[in-house]
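Researcher: Good morning. I'm working through a list of sequences from a screen, and I'd like to move beyond sequence-only analysis. For each chain I'm collecting a predicted structure so we can compare shapes side by side. This is the next one on the list. No need for commentary yet; just the structure.
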Amino acid sequence: MKKQKNDPIGMADAIEILDLIEEIGSRWDKMRKQWLREYKITHTQLKVLVILKEKGRLNFKDLSNHLSCAPCNVTGIVDRLEAGGFVKRDRSSKDRRIVNVVLTDKGKKIASELTKAVFPELSMLAGKVLKNLNNGEIKSLYKILPRLLGCFTSE
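Model: Good morning. Structure tokens for this chain:
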């Protein structure tokens, strides 16, 4: 396909960019699956454990915002983590309608283990991936990638 006058890049360039994004995703997925198999949890459960480790207690709405999903989806995730003994529900003393999710001792332990096991590798990977970018480019990438992802959602 011939590059149009107003097109910022040609078709070959667009395909190459998307292929590179796919390869980065594939390599990340392979590493992530290795960690998850070891701890017998899902990626979303890992995210919840890490978020709660960093943020402390969160209500379902705030947790759903961190996970970029609907609060009703968080219920099932929390149910499974609660069944595994990793989290518990804690009603707010100020407003009984508000239910917070907090890590149990078991959840804190696995979150710490995951952080110790995964964070150095994740930092190394991020360093390798981002080492050729300056801070401004990294911030731009952080803004651009969600916009690219938004192109794939159905209207």
